[in-house]
Amino acid sequence: MTQPVWLSERVQWIGALDPTMRSFDIVLKTPNGTTYNAYAVRGSEGVAVIDTVKEACAEQFFTRLEAVASYDEIKVIVLNHLEPDHTGALPELMRRAPQAKLYISKSAQLMLKALLNQQDIDYTPVGTSDTVSLGDRTLRFLHTPYLHWPDTQCTYLEEEYMLFSGDVFGCHFCDERLFNDKVGDFRFAFEYYYAHIMRPFREHVLNALAILEPLRMNIIAPTHGPILRDQPKRYMQRYRELSGQRLQSEVNADEKTLVIFYISAYGSTTQMAQMIRAGAEQVAGVRASLYDMEGGDADLFVDLVEDADGILIGSPTINGDAVKPAWDLVSSFAKINVRGKLAGAFGSYGWSGEAVRMLEDRLRGLKMRLPQSGVRIKLIPSSEELEECRRYGQEAGEHLMGVNAPRVLDMADLLASRQAQV
Amino acid sequence: MAKAKVTFSDVNVTVNVPVGTRIIELSEAVGSYIAYNCREGDCGVCLFEVIKGQENLSPVSKEESSVILTRFQEIMDGWRTTKSLDALQEKMQRENFIGKHCRLACQTQVFGDVVVAPL
Ligand code: FES
Ligand SMILES: [Fe+2]
Ligand SMILES: [Fe+2]
Question: Which domains does chain A carry?
Fold first, then answer.
C-alpha cells in the first residue's frame, strides 16, 4: 500500500507506516510498530501539507504526496510539532516546494531555527484563532503547548470539523487499515501512550481540553496511530478522565505534603523514618506520611509522588548499594513530573553507607531539589542520632513551607563540613 | 582578602567568599539545585539565573554565551524538563538575556555581592 488514503473529498493521509519499530525514543515500547501520519488538505486556492514524517520514512511520504498534488500546488506547510519524527522530511519538502509558507506555533520559533540549523527562515508564527485560507477551506490554529513539547499546537479544518491534533490523541499502533473503526484493538496502545507521553503534562492536557472540547468534531487526525473518525469525542472524553483528579484531595491549599518512603532490614531505617516524620510534622502546614516500600509496589506509589510536594526515601546500604525497591521507586518517577519537588534520602548502614549518596545523585539527576544532605547512621541509631533525624525532618518541612531560617556561613566552614560528611 | 556575599535564593543560604570564587565551588555544597557536569564550560549543565548583582560577576566570554545557547536548545529538546520552560523561553527571547541573567556556574567568578538561583 503506497497510495494516499481519503479522509474526505479534500483531505488525504500521506503519512508513513513503520511496522517494524519496537521501541520509540528508547523508553517507549511499541510492540506493534507505529505510523507517522501526515495529511494533505486541498482548497480551491492551493494545498496544505500538515506535518511530515520521520526522515527514514520520507520516501513513502513523498510518493503519497506526489499522488495527491504537485509540489507547485503546495501553498502551506503546517507543523503541529517539531520533533524529528514529524519534521524529518521537512527540509526536503521545503526544497521541493520552495514557495510554500511555513506555519508554526509561537513557541516553536527557536526550535525551528535549531532544527534547520539556520537563522533566516521564512515562517509565520501563529496562535489560537489565527487562520490561513486555502480558498474554500480554512485552517484554524489552536495553541496547545506542552503536549508533549513546548511547541505543540493543533490545527482545525473549519469546514470539515476535522482536528489535526499532533501527538495528542495519538498512539504507537501500526495497522494499514488506518481508521479506528477498521483497525485491531488499539485501546491498550492509546492508554499506554497517554500514560507515558502526556501524563507528565496533566495540567496542560486540561488546558488543551478546554480549548478542544467545545469544537464540533467529525474526525481527529493525530500524528501517530489510528485516525479517529468513529466517535472521535470519546477519545477526548477518555483524556478528560485520565487527566482528572482521582479522589478529591483532602489537603488544603496552604498545606504541603511530604511523603516518606522507607525500607528497613533490621528496623534502624524504620526508626529513622519515624523520627523524620515527627520532625516534619512540627512545622505548621506540613502533612507528612510514611510508607513502607515493602508494603506496596512502585506503580501504586507513583500516584502518591505525583501529588506530593516533597519525597524522602530511606534505604539501608546493602552490598554497597541501595535496595531494589528503592531503585524501582525512583525509576518510576520518570513517568510523572517530579522536577523541582523537594527530595532527600536517608538510611542506616553497617559497613559503608553509599546508598544515601547514590539515591541523592539520582534524585538530583531527575531535577529534584535537594537542599539538605541526607542522614546516614551506622547500625542502630543512638538518641543523638535520632535527634539528628528529627532535625532533618524538621528542616525538610521548613524547606517545603519556605520558612527555613536564612543561613549565613563562611566558605571555609562550608567546605570543611562537606569534607567531614563524605 | 576582599570578600563577597553569594546568596543562593532557593535554599536561603548566604556564603561569605573570597573574591574570584566560582559559583560552582559553592552551589553543590549548600544544596542549591544548580547542577553541573563537566566543570569546564563545555556541557552547559550548570546554567543558573542571576537575580541580583550581575555587575559583580566576571564578564561573559564568547565561548560561554555559545555554550549557554546550545544548552538552552538541549533543554528545549528534553521534554521532561518542562515546568519552567515557558518562562525560560520567554526570558531567553528577551534581548540580552544570555550572559546577563543567565550564566554558567563553572565559569562565573564572583567579585561582589550577588543573589543567584537555579534556572
Ligand atoms: S559544568 Fe559543564 S559547563 Fe559548567
Ligand atoms: Fe512527539
Ligand atoms: Fe510523535
Answer: 5-242 (3.60.15.10), 256-400 (3.40.50.360)
Torsion angle defined by CA atoms of residues B26, B29, B30 and B35, in that order, rounded to the nearest 10 degrees? 80
**Closest-CA distance of chain A to residue B60, Å:** 22
DSSP A196: I
Residue entry with cell 532527600? A344
Cβ–Cβ < 8 Å for B31, A364: no
Contact A231, A175 (CB under 8 A): no
Contacts of B81 in chain A (CB under 8 A): 339, 367
State percent of chain A over pLDDT 70. Answer: 94
Q: Which domain holds residue B54?
A: 3-118
Contact criterion met (CB < 8 Å) for A339 and B83: yes
ipTM, two decimals: 0.73
Give the number of the atom of ligand 1 that is nearest the alpha carbon of residue B107.
4
pTM: 0.61
pLDDT band at A314 (very low <50, low <70, confident <90, very high): very high
H-assigned helices in A225-349: 232-243, 268-281, 298-307, 324-332
Structural domains in chain B (count): 1
- Does the pLDDT value for residue B93 go beyond 70? no
> pLDDT tier at A351 (50, 70, 90 boundaries)?
confident
CATH of the domain at B7: 3.10.20.30
Predicted confidence at residue B78, as pLDDT, reads: 46
